[in-house]
Write a structure and sequence with these properties.
With 487 residues, the chain is mainly alpha-helical. The protein is 83% helix and 0% strand. It has 17 helices and no strands.
Length: 487
């Protein structure tokens, strides 16, 4: 009842704001933008509609298919047994931290490259790309080596006294997946550099082929050769090696604006490395803190019993699916805004953040509706118990109502502002709102108010709402345009 009331109340507030935008100047801009869209599109912009479609559609497809393939991968591993799926789930908690950190660093390099491309400084853009590759290789190899040396004490420190067979499977899975960190780093760097120069089809194709290679490898190694968790891990390792090799080869193409012909000639340029880290480290901390927050929430949900755990697990999968395409728009927005800032077209950066935020809102509305319609068949196909399925459907209904209200404003403008170099503000805001709203409210409602897993999504909605207000205030202030990432 509380969750339904809060959703209706907030929805009414939002409608009031949009119908009477003069009440809050922050929404006046959004209102004016919506009214004047036709007038604005008549002017000359850096990106045509066709160029935007060419940039965004492959990213959205890549994100969506990767998410679907990841779900299929998990389902295949679950056939090995409960110890296997538990081991994969536990180790992936570590792996995701590493992957998120590497992805954020690569995104920092992509912002630098896109701004240099916008300023037509191809020499510095190429030099920046080389430094991104160098930094990512060094850091990913270092992480891989540290995890290799300390893998046994690390697993015991984080997971404590789990069952013997779960720990044995965890050690096997972690060994092979940690060997893939350098290849993840190289692929993330290469894919980000390609996206920075508007080439999104290349990373999409590589990702799709890699995912099918992983699924096929799982099928052969798990079901034909009976290798269990080791088979799943080896398949993942091979697919990531494939990704890295292909993207590095693709970057050698002289037809690209940014290309690298001789990787062995790359030497560190500390001034550019500092700039890459200046953008990448805050984003890496932000992503890592989100993962720690998710672990804290999972720990709280685990106290609610098996029914709640199963319902929350399925709801998380469905919620990720209904936001993944819009997330792709945000990733593409970083390239667009980066080039606008590099070209000293701040007005264009503002315009595209508004425009792609509206596009993301449409994508979210469609995605939420589709996932809501598919939720019940998915719970049936997943063989969920009746009570878990009922809880899952309730939470999906709550998400379908609340996500279109605040999700876009809490995420999409922030992508654009990061591309302008406003990374520290995003890091502080995101980490504070997550721990103060999402995590704290979830723990309070679960442990002290007797709420079930719906508390997770009430906390999530509070987090999105606070972030939406703060980021829109920041966007309206234009302080995010005062950063200088390139010369």
């Amino acid at each position: 009842m509380f969750s339904l009331f809060s959703s209706i109340l907030f929805s009414a507030m939002i409608q009031k704001v949009f119908y009477f935008p003069q009440i809050f100047p922050i929404f006046q801009e959004a209102h004016d933008f919506f009214v004047n869209t036709k007038k604005q599109t008549a002017t000359q912009h850096l990106f045509t509609n066709k160029q935007l479609r060419t940039l965004l559609v492959p990213i959205m497809v890549e994100q969506l298919l990767s998410s679907l393939m990841g779900t299929a991968d998990t389902m295949m591993v679950s056939n090995v047994g409960s110890a296997a799926i538990s081991a994969v789930s536990l180790v992936d908690a570590i792996n995701i931290l590493v992957i998120q950190a590497l992805s954020a660093l690569a995104a920092g390099g992509a912002i630098l490259c896109s701004q240099y491309l916008g300023s037509q400084n191809l020499k510095k853009a190429k030099r920046s790309a080389e430094q991104v590759l160098f930094v990512m290789l060094v850091l990913s190899c270092s992480l891989s080596l540290l995890c290799l040396i300390f893998r046994f004490p690390l697993l015991r420190l984080i997971f404590g006294t789990v069952d013997t067979d779960v720990m044995a499977n965890s050690q096997i899975y972690f060994f092979f997946t940690l060997l893939s960190f350098p290849f993840i780093g190289l692929y993330d760097a290469g894919a980000s550099i390609l996206r920075a120069q508007n080439n999104t089809k290349g990373p999409m194709t590589i990702s799709i082929l890699s995912n099918f290679l992983n699924i096929g490898g799982n099928a052969i190694l798990i079901f034909v050769f009976g290798m269990g968790v080791a088979g799943a891990a080896i398949s993942t390792l091979v697919s990531r090696i494939f990704c890295a090799i292909v993207v590095i080869w693709q970057l050698r193409n002289p037809a690209e604006q940014i290309y690298v012909r001789n990787y062995f000639s790359i030497r560190p340029d500390w001034s550019l490395i500092k700039r890459v880290l200046f953008i990448g480290i805050p984003s890496g901390i932000e992503n890592s803190m989100f993962q720690f927050g998710k672990l804290a929430i999972q720990s709280t949900v685990s106290t609610l019993g098996t029914v709640a755990i199963a319902a929350q697990a399925m709801t998380s999968i469905l919620e990720a699916l209904n936001g993944i395409a819009a997330m792709g728009v945000g990733i593409g927005l970083m390239t667009v805004v980066g080039q606008c800032i590099g070209a000293k077209r701040k007005d264009e950066a503002i315009y595209y953040i508004k425009r792609l935020s509206w596009l993301s809102e449409i994508v979210i509305l469609i995605s939420c509706a589709v996932v809501y319609l598919l939720a019940k068949p998915v719970t049936i196909l997943g063989g969920m118990e009746a009570e878990s399925a009922r809880l899952c459907l309730q939470m999906v209904a709550f998400i379908t109502i609340t996500k279109p209200i605040s999700w876009v404003l809490s995420f999409i403008p922030a992508y654009g502002m990061r591309a302008a170099g406003d990374v520290k503000f995003s890091m502080i805001t995101s980490c504070a709102s997550m721990w103060l709203c999402r995590v704290s409210l979830c723990i309070f409602l679960c442990r002290f108010c007797g709420f079930g897993p719906i508390a997770v999504w009430i906390g999530m909605f509070a987090d999105w709402s606070v972030r939406a207000v703060v980021f829109m205030l920041r966007f309206h202030s234009r302080k995010w345009l005062q950063h200088h990432v390139i010369d």
